[in-house]
Amino acid sequence: MTKLWFFRLMAGATLLSFQAAGAATFRAPIDDTRWEIEVSHFECRMMHQIPAFGYAIFEHEAGETLNFNLVPTQQQQIEGTVRLIAEAPAWQPGIAPEMLGEMSVQSGRVRINGAGATQMMSALYRGMSPTFSGQNWYQSAQPVSVGISSVNFKSAYSDYMDCVAQLLPVNYRQIARTAVLFPSAQIMLSDATRDRLDLIVQYVQHDDTVTTIYVDGHSDNVGRRLLNRDLSKRRAEEVTNYLLQQGIDESMIITRYHGERYPVVANNTPDNRTRNRRVTIRLERE
Questions:
Q1: Higher-scoring residue by pLDDT: 21, 59
Q2: How far is CA 65 from CA 37, 44, 69, 167, 231, in A?
Q3: d(CA 142, CA 163)
Q4: How many angstroms separate the CA atoms of 54 and 44, rounded?
Q5: Predicted confidence band at 245 (pLDDT cuts at 50, 70, 90)?
Q6: CA atoms of 20 and 16, how far apart (whole Å)
Q7: Nearest-CA neighbor of 266 among 229, 221, 227?
Q8: Do 214 and 252 touch, CB atoms closer than 8 A?
Q9: Alpha-carbon span 27 to 19, nearest angstrom
Q10: Residue 280: left if φ>0, alpha if ψ -120 to 50, beta else—which one?
Q11: How confident is the prediction for the chain on average, in pLDDT?
């Protein structure tokens, strides 16, 4: 008997004894288990309703990792610390349960990010049922067990993966405020700057709610003020011209330049002056 098998066996025994002690149990019946899919270039969602309890929701936003939320219709249904165990269905006897972890309930819901959410999705794909077990149902100290059914999951998972494949590489929060930097006295765009601007273009071309792009040029304080103002103007125009070349509508762009008037940090070190030689690109939605 390996240590892992023994651990899984003990986890299963703990869960079974926990549920036998009069736990309030919630799980969708086999003949009424549905997985709903919402797809877009900005987010992929898989949602499973748990009757009389709430929803299990997988969410994958553009530019982010997968996360999972267990959302009760009423916050008091589950509180404190819960244990998550992947159980085999009744028609697959002999498969040991898998302990997936313990986590705290926050604001009435359970949230699992990144690798933990991916592990849950993997268990569901293999036909296992991730089950949350806790000790505080409606603040009564009565045990509660909430199971997520794997029935019909695979067909929904196929649509989910198609959605993930067409997600944008960034979301609005990641792209709405961007600063690109320039070497001293230079206006040419670097390859890294072009790559960043390409992400902005790709996002704007998919998001019809973006109405305005502000392009603002800045400089450090080295040299004459009027020359710095002209330098910031030429930098901003370089960025604007690149956006136009990539297909952005000219009417969306407002180009401005400010010279050395608005440093983000004091111009007292070479590193700080590097940060001030910049063009900022700001997206605004309707």
A1: 59
A2: 17, 11, 13, 12, 40
A3: 40
A4: 19
A5: very high
A6: 6
A7: 221
A8: no
A9: 13
A10: beta
A11: 90
